[in-house]
Amino acid sequence: MSLALPPDAPAAAGLADPVLIVDHLTMRFGGLTAVGDVSFQVGRGNITALIGPNGAGKTTVFNCITGFYKPTEGMIRLRRADGETHLLERLPGHDVNRVARVARTFQNIRLFPQMTVLENLLVAMHKPLMRASGFSLAGILGLPHYRREEEAAIARAAAWIARIGLTHRADEPAGDLPYGDQRRLEIARAMCTDPVLLCLDEPAAGLNPRESADLNTLLRLIRDEFGTSVLLIEHDMSVVMQISDRIVVLDYGRKIADGTPDQIRADTRVIAAYLGVDDEEVAAVEAEVGLTGTEASGVSA
Amino acid sequence: MANTSTLGPIAPAMTRPTGTAFPALLKDAALFALVTLGLSIPVVAYRTDLGQGTGLELTARWGLVASLCLAVFVLRLAQRLILGEVSRRRDARIRARADASAVAAPKALRPGRALGSLTLAVALTLPALAALGSGGLSEGRYWIDLGILILTYVMLGWGLNIVVGLAGLLDLGYVAFYAVGAYSYALLSTVFGLSFWICLPLAGLFAAAFGILLGFPVLRLRGDYLAIVTLAFGEIIRLVLINWVDFSGGSAGISSIPRASFFGIPFTKGEGGFADLFGLSFSPMHRVIFLYYLILVLALITNVVTLRMRRLPLGRAWEALREDEIACRSLGIDTTITKLTAFALGAMFAGFAGSFFAVRQGFVSPESFNFLESAIILAIVVLGGMGSQIGVVIAAIVMVGAPELLRNLGFLKAVFGQGFDPSEYRLLLFGLAMVAMMVWRPRGLISERHPSVRLSEAKR
Fold first, then answer.
1. For the domain with range B126-450, which CATH number is right: 2.40.50, 3.30.420, 1.10.3470, 1.10.287?
2. Does B320 reach chain A within 8 Å, measured CB to CB?
3. Could you tell me which residues come within 8 angstroms of residue B100 by beta carbon, excluding any fewer than 6 positions away?
């Protein structure tokens, strides 16, 4: 596993001003190196996809970025548009969202199932509402200031509920929603924390083609209208290839490629590691090790 | 936002032709009655009879017309109401089939609210009801005392509901905070001579401080582990109170704790007492009734604060924490602080209740704060349905009132012989009730959760 890589694939427009810089990130669990020396950048206002076969370490990278793991080595920097920089690996778990404003969703959906759709979104606006309620003291007394702030928060939540097409089910428990709606709701909830960077862990998993298309529209909306940079893990290539501005490919915890969708599509290492190996290539390798053509086709079938 | 409409399915415009407003129904029925009136004036109102001789006689029958109109009115109203109900049920069935998950809860809300108001009305008038029912204030004392006991448990249940029902932290040592409150008042009043009204907030503060003190090391634990540590904490407090004799008087407890006064006016006979000042004839019942309303007010404050908290971001964060701690962390909620606030607030209400307990009994000893108390309070919360306020009230009445009821079942002696004492079977029945609950209502008596905010109401 010692692939000598060029340090960086050609930089796209957004990369001149990266929002997230991951430097030499390594994460070891005991003797297992889940992520080894991975460096990549997420351009501001870009949708960047992190792909790779199962077990490549994508979710581990995510957990390091969002504060759920403390990386063994390396540095993760978040740069705001005004140049303010946060070292994510040093922040306590909840501050990654509260202070650095990095939001995430989960591979297995983590909504608050008994709370309603609206309440789920209001929980995401915890920080501004806590301040408005005077850390509950003013809120207990029912001061008008908090009332106004809460109404504004509800209006904001309602706008997101409308965007994901759930207005008619806004007062139902989130756990009762169908799977695709829950996925979209989780993204809306993450967006309600007003993030600079939104990390989505397999947002299209389990969606049907129509829901996948809806998801693409939603992600483009997030990028274009809210200017939020998106980093997503995804296996669904129709999503990845259509909406990504850049793609980072991991395999066995190492970065094997980094570039635009067209570059990735053409990258032989990626094809070999992820999308499968060409038949001719298989044949060539098999010829090298001395297998006959018929046997080779039998193996590849 | 040009492309939002493509993002998801727009709500199917299912306007249900149901639930016509009652005034409209009245109007409709009145119209029917009016038509009946118009028709019946020429047909029914006058009857022609053969009179004496050759002429016809007119007999006015306005009474019959009136009753006809009334009958039509009532029948039409009943028809509309019944048909409306039938069609609503059918619609509901169709809707339920259309999307099984969309069972709206607002209908269930109304009986709950009615039950709540009824309970509150009974609670407010209980002394009067007891006096009327048993023919005199002093004769009604038993009922008022029982009311005080039940309300104490209601208050404790509501306090624990914050910790267990809302924040989802299983606390088996809640009685420790109750003990802290009781001993705070007992010690502050006997040693420093402070009045009840100064001690009450202090007791709450001390209990909350103990909640935070316990919470810091403990709250990183979850579920069963948290339950075990809180259980141990409850026992530690009790054992300290037994063994630290210089401080707490040991198992002998603290006696002759000053009684509550009416905001400084003592409930004593003679000059300067409550009865003297208000021109009443002295009765020991004044103090009991005052205590009753005191615990009622304290309990209602607990309730109001809890209901308010549910609508505040902190309260929502508690519930979110109960549902998914990891998701909370990803949304920037400091889980430790959030848990601590729930623990501290729950402990504070236990402190208030404890100091009320001390002022009512006039005597505290560690034996009042054993594990069984914690178990009863927890059982009240769990039986009532975690997070449900009215459920706690019902469960407290059942759990505290039922043993009292057993004491009064004298007729059972006639069945089972003279030596039979029904109250000895208390725990057996308690266990049976628990098993029955687990089978039929595993999520508590009132298991629906009411949203803290509704989009449909917020928009207005």
1. 1.10.3470
2. yes
3. none
